[in-house]
């Protein structure tokens, strides 16, 4: 009995410790579950291969040992190890394909035009303008997120120190055109709300979330801050794992952390969340899963699917642009220009994933094939610099994000990080040439290098040209009619009036 207690008590204490350490056990279960998914099938098959060997070994041990039998058993054992290793590598490869296929479950590939989206200030500009507007804040910027509902950029600032949380949230309006800019700062109560993502010990927000509900995790880059008056709220989209042999992630609601009271709330209904509720990291994983749109051979040799454009033109934000729909629905989506796998760099498709989604399933993803296609973002930047060299690019001016804005159009902004001056809108390759138009930051048309036939820009340019001709051409004299029809008296009266008018003009 004493020996049993000496074993049972430490095991019980260890179990209680692991149960209390909800954050550590959550991480351990997540990582072990992913590891088990990669090793489960190879271990199972290797075990089945090893069973005959083990049975033969036991039989051989009963009958006595001989050198020939030992050699045979050794050969069988080595073969089992080789087969197990081969199965492990094979399942690691094929399991990756199945995982991509699982993320492809709710993907639609269509030839419909991309929905119309509203242009916004580039992410790099929102990031650059955050620091100058923080005032006397001593913390460090940890996250910048575009909030499509309000059309503003939110900045989350960490307080310095190991055992501290966030210091302040900053929400700022950065319009493409105009000078009006609004900024709002909401400070955290650092004595009460003292937790943050990645904090130490009891100041770790992830630990608090795991204490509320185990087996949920999140990506730190998915979190953002919103200001309700002077109260900051940290919004953390949550994720859960699903599957046994193929483990994938699914949305699991959001965690809301009150910056004034330190209260943490987990909500499965995300309709009232003032910002994106679908994890951007899952949307990115769905987009990466499009590589498995074809067969396993196509996936292995990278002959199918699409990649995000990574040629450097959209440095700092190359995929999952958060954009708001141009209609009155108030919806928004994560939008990514896609290029074919391989050496091709032209943009041939655009993927969209909604930023809001209810339930625990993957949000529907739509891949819109473009017709006409676009040149690569890097080539478009070079084209803009060549066709609009009078406005781009001098001093600190540069071409920012090339983002889809609906139909078959893209928009690139021109200016500095502190002052956006112009935008260039394109319609893809029309008649073998990239159709582009230069506009002011507020969208007013300036000129076009090549206007797409039948476009609104072409009609506007024709109207301007007609007005210009009417303003510059001299007025044509009116036709006096057929003079042979006039009587002698009418001709005399007409001659008198002409003489009077000539004399009046000469005197004038």
Structure write-up:
It is built from ten helices and 19 strands. It is an alpha+beta fold and 508 residues long. It has helices at residues 2-20, 22-63, 67-103, 123-128, 205-212, 280-288, 296-300, 377-387, 456-472, 488-507, and strands spanning 107-110, 140-147, 152-158, 166-172, 183-187, 224-228, 231-242, 248-258, 264-267, 306-308, 321-324, 332-340, 347-354, 365-374, 398-406, 409-415, 420-430, 433-440, 445-450.
What descriptors fit this protein?
508 residues; alpha+beta; six-stranded mixed beta sheet; five-stranded antiparallel beta sheet; 10 helices; 19 strands
Mind sketching the topology for me?
Elements: H1 2-20, H2 22-63, H3 67-103, E1 107-110, H4 123-128, E2 140-147, E3 152-158, E4 166-172, E5 183-187, H5 205-212, E6 224-228, E7 231-242, E8 248-258, E9 264-267, H6 280-288, H7 296-300, E10 306-308, E11 321-324, E12 332-340, E13 347-354, E14 365-374, H8 377-387, E15 398-406, E16 409-415, E17 420-430, E18 433-440, E19 445-450, H9 456-472, H10 488-507
Parallel strand pairs: 1-14
Antiparallel strand pairs: 2-3, 3-4, 4-5, 6-7, 7-8, 8-9, 10-12, 11-12, 12-13, 13-14, 15-16, 16-17, 17-18, 18-19
Helix pairs in contact: 2-3, 2-5
